[in-house]
Design goal:
It contains 1 helix and 23 strands. The protein has 431 residues and is mainly β. Strand 2 and strand 3 form a beta hairpin.
Length: 431
């Protein structure tokens, strides 16, 4: 009642002022129309008066385009019986009727019938807010006239109007009804006993267009795991940033990560799901003999007691193969790390690294051997290339790994190498 009494006194003062004044200068002067709220691109309505509000400004952040939280709801009512005739108006800037940059002019919202109470919401007119809207509420009283109560009885002139008598005459409304962009979960690691998930940060899409665009901003991510489609959830958490979720899994089990992104007005994306299993090492494939072959100098026939140079050509190289195993795609890679040489005369040599491949003639090879006796049937020279094996697995659209798979050996095709004994001959020189 105290607020009502103060408004009654204010209105009585206005009537007295209008009755006694000989010039407008004798009454309180209207406030200067200037915009200090919300977007700088929007000024106050023409002739806007700031005098008669119990409160002043308010700001709303919501995801409801009909703005059910409008603070003017259920605040429209008159203080005098007829003929008070309070008509309520709104002036709006922004994307409030589905058109960005819309400016309403003064729109009549309702006419009071004392002592009824009324309310105003955008949904009452079928309007929806997108992005940023600036709302002004004012009334025109047929007794007190227009701006700041200056006028005369029966003055039906158009605006300027009085400011709102009760409530917040200026309200900045920010509506973001769009969820953030959906996060995309991915597998970052998979081992024989576990799988790890994460996702990249996303942005909020925002709402409205042009200068009315408003983006609430991403608030948090909700994430959790399920196992083999069962109803229970694991490792549920709300986090301000993406996290890495590691789940141990026995063979045959599959984990599914679930991720949602929420903005600051509680819009949430749909549940984004990705499933993956722990990685099971594949068997080492049978690749057959390598493409390399044994080369020797002197070629064709060797000499006992003379150093033979040996090499592999083409030199062994990194090789990869893709295969399916237990319903998953694997990439298996073999990297040559050395050669085991068998010279066929009971002696052998293990040479690690690139030196084990030898160098082609005429360069001196690091792989050499001296045969002490001849063998017209030929010595069987063998070379077995050793490879370091690794594997990667395609999980959730991402290759994870590589992981070690031990070593493997691949023998090149043997080379028969005849060796003869050099026979000295006496040559007679002519006189």
């Amino acid at each position: 009642m105290k607020g009502v009494a103060s408004v009654l006194r204010m209105r009585q003062g206005l009537v007295l002022c209008v009755a006694l004044a000989t010039t407008a200068a004798m009454c309180p002067s209207p406030a200067v129309a200037a915009s200090a709220w919300g977007s700088a691109a929007y000024g106050d309505p023409p002739g806007w008066c700031t005098r008669y509000s119990d409160m002043w400004t308010a700001t709303i952040y919501t995801n409801d385009p009909s703005v059910a939280t409008n603070p003017e709801r259920d605040t429209f009512y008159g203080f005098h019986p007829n003929p008070g005739y309070d008509d309520w108006y709104g002036f709006f800037y922004g994307d409030f009727r589905g058109a960005a940059g819309d400016t309403s002019g003064w729109v009549k919202l309702l006419h009071e019938q004392y002592p009824s109470h009324y309310h105003w919401n955008f949904a009452d007119y079928g309007w929806h807010v997108h992005g940023h809207v600036k709302q002004y509420i004012a009334y025109y009283n047929w007794t007190f006239g227009g701006q700041c109560g200056l006028g005369r009885y029966g003055d039906m002139s158009p605006p300027p109007y009085m400011a709102d008598q009760y409530g917040w005459p200026v309200v900045d409304i920010y509506v973001d009804a769009m969820p953030p962009f959906p996060p995309v979960p991915r597998v970052v690691a998979a081992t024989p006993t576990s799988v790890s998930f994460t996702w990249d940060p996303v942005a909020d899409q925002g709402d409205g267009t042009g200068r009315d665009q408003y983006t609430a901003g991403v608030d948090h991510y909700a994430s959790w795991l399920t196992i083999n489609g069962r109803s229970g959830i694991l490792q549920s958490a709300n986090t301000a940033a993406p996290r890495t979720i590691v789940q141990r899994l026995p063979p045959g089990e599959q984990a599914c990560v679930h991720v949602q992104a929420f903005d600051r007005v509680k819009n949430g994306t749909a549940d984004q799901v990705l499933c993956a299993a722990a990685a099971t090492p594949p068997p080492i494939p049978d690749w057959g003999p390598p493409a390399s072959r044994v080369n020797v100098d002197p070629p064709a026939v060797g000499l006992a007691g003379f150093e033979a140079w040996l090499w592999l050509w083409p030199q062994p190289r990194r090789e990869s193969i893709q295969e399916s195993y237990l319903g998953a795609q694997y990439l298996i890679t073999a990297v040559p790390i050395g050669v085991q040489w068998d010279f066929g005369d009971g002696t052998d040599a293990r040479i690690d690294g690139l030196m084990g491949f030898g160098r082609p003639f005429p360069a001196p090879s690091q792989v050499t051997h001296v045969y002490s006796t001849q063998s017209r049937g030929g010595y069987q020279i063998r070379a077995t290339v050793r490879y370091e094996m690794s594997w990667s697995m395609l999980a959730g659209g991402e290759w994870v790994g590589p992981y070690p798979l031990g070593t493997a050996e691949r023998e090149v095709r043997p080379l028969p190498y005849p060796v003869v004994q050099a026979q000295p001959e006496l040559i007679r020189l002519s006189d």
